[in-house]
Structure formats: structure tokens, C-alpha cells
């Protein structure tokens, strides 16, 4: 049986990975979506194994120790990571799995799964990205400048990806991602 | 300006290249379709420059001489070929061009355009292909056997292509080809 594909969606912060990822879940319900492990507390309505695998700090450190995570990172005092087991089992069963993660994490996944399909989500323009980063809330100019400089650095990592998809309209971005998945299944390897 | 893509659809005789090509014209009218040159007589309703570029034998031999054809072949006493000029002008203008040709011709085009996207149209099964070859008319068993053996030889050339698309349903085959074109435009080169 042919293995499934690992499809990784990434891109600079503020580009709309989460929004596109959620729209894709509705458009392609037959795709399996990777569930992250985290040490943060469950929020109202979040289910273990659905939204996240909720772990204690000790459990998470143990997963790192045993190389059970494809990548992980710490944000605001909490760990987030991608369990290797779920990804491997899904593709071994011949099903595709979809991963939506940060740029640095995606490059770590690429080291372990060079045969994965790595898609970089692009803003229509840098000005547009600035607007989106600014539009998030009431951050200071210094915070916005810092986030913008991080985003520009992240943009430079695009060259390590297989595909670039412009997030001009969510529907269009989803159609492009769906097309990439269909095309990859037709590829002669 | 980015160049357009050369998209070549080929596959064994009897697989339904023409049917899929025609369905694609309706689905993707914005795509430019290559027009072949031929020495055969125009049929009722056929227009020069639309269905074919109609040429005399002398004109055609002159085009061969001047390397103005990407590929050509002789069938039942008539020449058929792909004018290079039209293909090159279209992609230089940033537009995609679609070519639907025989397996051998496609491989000749690949020599001149290695960066083209080569799609191999597959029958759902060899039995299905046999049925289609048989279903064409009232040929003798020997003719059917010969066509079938040619088709099997042609199938072995699939490895030189980039993509394989199964022609199980015309709509599905068209959707896969459309997806390949969209995905190729997203590819980071």
C-alpha cells in the first residue's frame, strides 16, 4: 500500500496559517489533521486528543527526552510540540496528514521527513502583513516593529519550502493547497 | 515577467487523450491550446489556425528543414507536427500552453523543453484499455493485438513523465490536470 503524504503548512506569523488551516478542515474533512501536544491549560470546550494532547510539564519533558516529538517550542512559558507517533501511524496507514506550524518548527520536521510536502503561506505583500500584525491588538510601535522584523526573517526561509501559496483570499488559498495535494498524489516518483 | 508553463498531455493510444483534451478546453478556456500543423486535407467545418495549420507537403518539409517543429510524425500518409514558434511565443508572453500529443512526440518535446510539465494519461487498467481499443470499430484480432502491444510499449514510457493521471472519469481526470497546473504555479523553483 502506498504511504500517505505529510503536508506541512507554515509561514510568517500574522500570515493567517490558523485561519487557512481551519477553512481547510471544512473543505477537506477527509484529511487527517495533526494534533499538537501542549503543557498549557485546556480552555473552555477544548478536548484532549481533539484540540490538543494536554500534558504535564514532566510528561512533555519525557516526550522530548524519548525523541517522541517531531519538533517543539516554548511560547510564553508553555511547551507546544508535534507528536511523532500520530504522524507516522497516519502515513503508514496510507492516509495524508496535515500539519500547521511555525516556520522554525517546519524546518525541524523537514529534517526528519525530507519527503514531506512543505507549503509556505505568503501575505499578498509585506505592507499587508504589517497591517495584519498591527491589526491584532493594541501593541506598542516597538512590539510591532519587532514582530515585523521577525516576520521578514521568517520570509527568508521560504526558499527551503516546496511551494508558496499566496493568502490573498482564503478560498483561493485553500484551493491552491488542495491542488498541491492532488498533484502530489499524481507525481511519478 | 514570469514565463508561462508548457503542459504536455500524452498517454497510450486508446486512453482518451482527445476526449480529456476537449473537456479541458471547456473547463479551462483561459489556457492556450497548441494548434498542430498538418498536410492532411481540411474536413468540413475545420478552420486554418483553429483546428490545424493546414500546410502543403512542401511547406511542411520546409518547416522540418528549418527546425520549426518541436516534433512531427507521419500517419497514414500525412504529416502532423507541433509548430515551435506558437509554443515559444505563448510562454514568453507569460501564458501557459497546453499540448496533447502521442507518447513518442511528447518525449521529443521534452528534449527541447525539459522544464515542461509532462502528464501521462493512464487507463484505469490494461483490460479497460483493451476494451477501448477493441471498442473503436470492427478491427481484426490481429489489429487489436498489435495495437494492444503498441499500447503496452507506450505504457513503459511513463517513467519519463512528471505526473500520471488516471482517466477513470473525464471530470476527475480534468480536475487532476487542473490541480497539477495550479500546483506547478505555486512551486518554488
UniProtKB/TrEMBL annotation, chains A, B:
| Record flagged with keyword Transferase | yes
What's the chief localization of this chain?
cytoplasm
Query: Where does the Guanylate kinase-like domain lie?
Result: 4-182
Q: Which GO terms describe its molecular function?
A: GMP kinase activity
What is this enzyme's EC?
A: 2.7.4.8
Under catalytic activity, the entry for this protein gives: GMP + ATP = GDP + ADP
Record keyword Zinc present: no
Sequence positions that bind ATP = 11-18
Keywords (A to Z) from UniProt:
ATP-binding, Cytoplasm, Kinase, Nucleotide-binding, Transferase
CDD domains from the UniProt entry = GMPK
**Localized where?**
Cytoplasm
Its job:
Essential for recycling GMP and indirectly, cGMP.
Q: Which family does it belong to?
A: Belongs to the guanylate kinase family.
Protein name, UniProt field: Guanylate kinase
Name the species this protein comes from: Paenibacillus medicaginis
- The gene it comes from is gmk
